[in-house]
Amino acid sequence: MFTGIIQAMGRITRTDPLEQGLRLNIHAGGLDLSDVAVGDSIAVNGVCLTAVALSETTFTAEVSRETLNCTHGLDAVGEVNLEKAMRLSDRLGGHLVSGHVDGVGEVVRFAPVGESHLLEIQAPHALSKYVAAKGSITVNGVSLTVNRVAGDELAINLIPHTLQVTTFKHLQQGGRVNLEVDLLARYVERLAAFYEQSDKD
Fold first, then answer.
1. What confidence tens digit (pLDDT) does each residue in 37-51 have?
2. Domains and their CATH numbers in the chain
3. pTM of this structure
């Protein structure tokens, strides 16, 4: 589990093909790897990956073809948002994030509004029902608050600090982002469906 509070910006420096997927070499940037062991989880642009090799400043992770098919930004060299798995004693500064991307959205608008930036995203239709105004969503691994929802489009306000410490500064209209909806929304849906079925029985 993760919190969606990005700890460092790293960089995918190399991608090597596997029979079914890719092996990624990632420079950890400012992420402290001293307490990370082989087998530990690190979220890379919101995708939970397992470190299969480590050095003082880099780690290696393997990504399956299935994961590549349902995410964005892991198949090429470039900057990525990084977060180590949370400890149970950690502060939950964002919200509970599993690192299992639900879908890929498209940036509709990314523009300055005063000192902040407005980020508007077209979400996959199947995910829209899980998104609520003032609720939480994870975008490229970052825990964010949804300001407004209209159909399949959601709007988010990004403060200068968020732009400074994440890869969001590189976003452009038409770009793609990894989305993970709030776990609580999925559980609510499951409970509602269960009780609806129970009433019919």
1. 999 999 999 999 999
2. 8-84 (2.40.30.20), 103-189 (2.40.30.20)
3. 0.93
